[in-house]
Each structure stands twice: as C-alpha cells, then as structure tokens.
C-alpha cells in the first residue's frame, strides 16, 4: 500500500494546553511512519529603545528553543524513529504564515494545528492561527479539538458530488488508510436542499431523493479506488443544519471537508455552509485543499442539481408533480 503521509508539520503555541495537539501529531506520524516537524512562531519581546540588547533577543530565542525541545520530549514526539532535533523550528513572524511557509519548504503532506489558542476560546470556536493556516495551506490540515478523538472511531465525509469534493473525498480516504483508521464507521453524507427536491418540474420528490442515493453510491464507488466506506446517506434539508445535526447525532470524532480557493477569494467546496460547519463543529476536522488541476475541472461543472441529467442512474420516466 502506498503511504501518502511522509512529512508532517505541527504548529505549537508551546503551552501545556497545546500538548494534546502535539501528541496527536506524534500519533499520526507514528501510524503513518512520517517525519514530524514542530514549529513555533513568535514576535520578539518589545523593549525600550535605550535598553535594546541583542543578548536579550538571543535569550528569547534560546528560551523558545528550550520550550520546543521540552514539549517534543514531554509529548513523545522526540521518541519517534523519524524525528531529528533539527526538525524543531522557531520562526519570528505570524504563526499562520510561518507554519504555511515551513510546510511549503519541507513539502509537507499534512499540517496539524489546534482549534483554539491558549485554551482561552471555547472549544467549538476556531482560533485565528488555525483559520489563517486553512486559508493558505498547500496540503490537508488536521484541526485538533480533542486529543482523545484520535484515532477516530466515527468519521463523517460530507460531499457535494463535484470534482473538488471527489478530490477531497479521495484525500480523506488516503489519510484514514495511512493512519490505520477502520472504515467500518466512516459515513459519506450528501444533503439535498429542499428547493432542489421540490423545485424540479421533471421528477417527483421521491424520485429525486432516490436518484440522489444512487448517484451518491456511484460517487463513492468511483472515487474510492479500493477500500470504501460502507455507510452512505442522503438527507433532505438545509445543508448547514443537516451536516451539523449528523455530526452531533453520530458523535463524530472526525469530519472531512474540502476547501477551495478561486479568483483570490478563499471559499469551501460546500460554500458558506462548510465554512459555518468548520467553525461550529465540535469534532476534529480534516480540511483538504484541491490538488492541481481539479479547480479547472470544477469550473466546467455549472449545472445545478435540479438541472442534472438523472437518466444514467435510473430508467424511470419523469413524473410531474401535477400527475401525483
């Protein structure tokens, strides 16, 4: 089996509250046999101009280095076979920017960050560092809200059946396989908007829902490339509420969502729906940006669901609502 995770970058605030994030990173690296990098970005301590001494800045840098070494040993990261001392990195600058830059430099396959900063924010809020990393990341980002939820027992993968969503689905499955996560309780979810179900003049609502189920199963089969989740469901409702409802109902440990940037404006595969899910979900998240070439393919997909050609998934004749 091909292992897709070779290099992992873990962002840390060096606080004990961030130990769970680093321990999760260590578990991911151990399971995948990956090489882990631990990075902390900071701003130099401000001193009055008359007392600026380079020795003070050197002391701060040494303190950060010592903190990284201590956390690496405290969390077990330093015990991993593929860990090297020079993979402890300190940077001066914005944490989000420096984490992303390091990921680009070492060609990371995964970035791991905490959802909250310093333990101050409520666990379902996304910290500014995590949000900044997600917007610019060159690879998938694992956002850790609960150390205890890894490895995940229950995984949810919302999809919208688009090429970008298919790419995120494939990368999500690769992550699960690389970290030895069982697929038994991994579910793929597709939400039909009520307007898509009730607004069709060609098919009855029951037909639309049935066709959507057939198309979802085809989507899973075509994009799994081998081992596939056994669970798939279609729900009708407003996507944000339905996705968040399923995450809470199943007590999901990990949700996989695709991110997508277009014309300089960052957005998510499922649009503002996924953005809200990302900020409100109480579980860990794997956010997956599209690989090269997938965005152009997505731009060719312009038909909304109610205009899609369902003939290839069913031999049924359309039933007009007036005929029911």
Q: How would you describe the overall organization of this protein?
A:
The structure is a single chain. With 324 residues, the chain is an alpha/beta fold. Helix content is 38%, strand content 19%. It contains ten helices and eleven strands. Strands 1, 2, 3, 4, 5, 6, 7, 8, 9, 10 and 11 form an eleven-stranded mixed sheet that branches. Helix 1 links the parallel strand 1 and strand 2. The C terminus is likely disordered.
Summarize the structure.
By secondary structure, the chain is α/β, with parallel strands linked by helices.
Q: Which band does the percent of strand residues land in? A: 15-25%
Query: What's the order of the H and E elements?
Result: EHEHEHEHEEHEHHEHEEHEH
Task: Give the radius of gyration.
Answer: 22 Å
Helix content: 25-40%
Largest sheet: 11 strands, mixed
List keywords for this structure.
324 residues; alpha/beta; eleven-stranded mixed β-sheet; 10 helices; 38% helix; elongated; disordered C terminus
Helices and strands in order:
Elements: E1 7-11, H1 19-32, E2 35-42, H2 54-74, E3 88-92, H3 95-105, E4 110-114, H4 128-136, E5 141-144, E6 155-158, H5 163-178, E7 186-192, H6 194-198, H7 205-224, E8 231-236, H8 239-249, E9 254-262, E10 265-268, H9 272-280, E11 284-288, H10 294-299
Parallel strand pairs: 1-2, 1-4, 2-3, 4-5, 6-7, 6-9, 7-8, 9-11
Antiparallel strand pairs: 5-11, 9-10
Helix pairs in contact: 3-4, 8-9
